[in-house]
Amino acid sequence: MRNDFGKTTKSQAILMMDEIDRDILRLLAGDARMSVAVMARKMKVARSTLQARLERLENSGVIAGYTLKLGEAARAGRIRASVLLNIEPRSQAAILSRLRAVPEVERIHTTSGRVDLLLEVAAPTTTALDAVLDRIGEIDGVKSSESLIHLSTKLDRAL
């Protein structure tokens, strides 16, 4: 599957993944520092095969990088919340620009359904979180917001 320029697009690369590619991603999700040699041994494939697969996954954008995933101990002492926003029509670009300037906003998702945006925010105290929520609610174009404070994480399979 190639585009007009002979290159595989990112969405095509995801569709072309096989069980070996999925095994690579599972191993890396468990330990992104695992060496190619160890991965090849675990998967019972040649090191050169694994290296070629990794390069293809990287070049196609399936693997965007190798990063640190923080555990609960690192997140301790931070109040985390999901914030559901309803916004005025045609105000999304301006609102996103303002939200990107709020350092406590860690992620912004567009959604389908009853809300327009889902934010993930973190603050050191409930007082600080309250101030962040006030700032978000005051942004022009925000019609309403609802916050859900995270009490604990029971499962995290995110890659």
Question: Any overview of this molecule?
Answer:
- Residues 17-79 form the HTH asnC-type domain.
- Keywords: DNA-binding, Transcription, Transcription regulation.
- InterPro entries: AsnC-type_HTH_dom (IPR000485), Dimeric_a/b-barrel (IPR011008), Tscrpt_reg_AsnC-like (IPR019888), Tscrpt_reg_AsnC/Lrp_C (IPR019887), WH-like_DNA-bd_sf (IPR036388), WH_DNA-bd_sf (IPR036390).
- GO terms for molecular function: sequence-specific DNA binding.
- The chain has 159 residues and is α+β, with helices and mostly antiparallel strands.
- The chain has two domains: 10-59, Winged helix-like DNA-binding domain superfamily/Winged helix DNA-binding domain (Arc Repressor Mutant, subunit A, Orthogonal Bundle); 72-149, Alpha-Beta Plaits (2-Layer Sandwich).
- It has seven helices and four strands; from the N terminus they run αααααβαββαβ.
- A hairpin with a 6-residue loop joins β2 (105-110) and β3 (117-123).
- α3 packs across α4 (47-59).
- The longest helix has 13 residues, at 47-59.
- The two termini are 25 Å apart.
CATH architecture assignment of the largest domain: 2-Layer Sandwich
* Count of DSSP strands: 4
Order of helices and strands: HHHHHEHEEHE
Q: Name the average pLDDT.
A: 88
Helix content: 40-55%
- The structure class reads alpha+beta
CATH topology of the largest domain: Alpha-Beta Plaits
In DSSP terms (H or I, runs of 4 or more residues), the helix count works out at 7
List the strand order in the largest sheet. Answer: 2-3-1-4
Fourth CATH level, the homologous superfamily of the largest domain: Lrp/AsnC effector binding domain/regulation of amino acid metabolism (RAM) domain
Distance between the termini: 25 Å
- In percent, how much strand structure appears in the residues? 15-25%
What is the 3D form? elongated
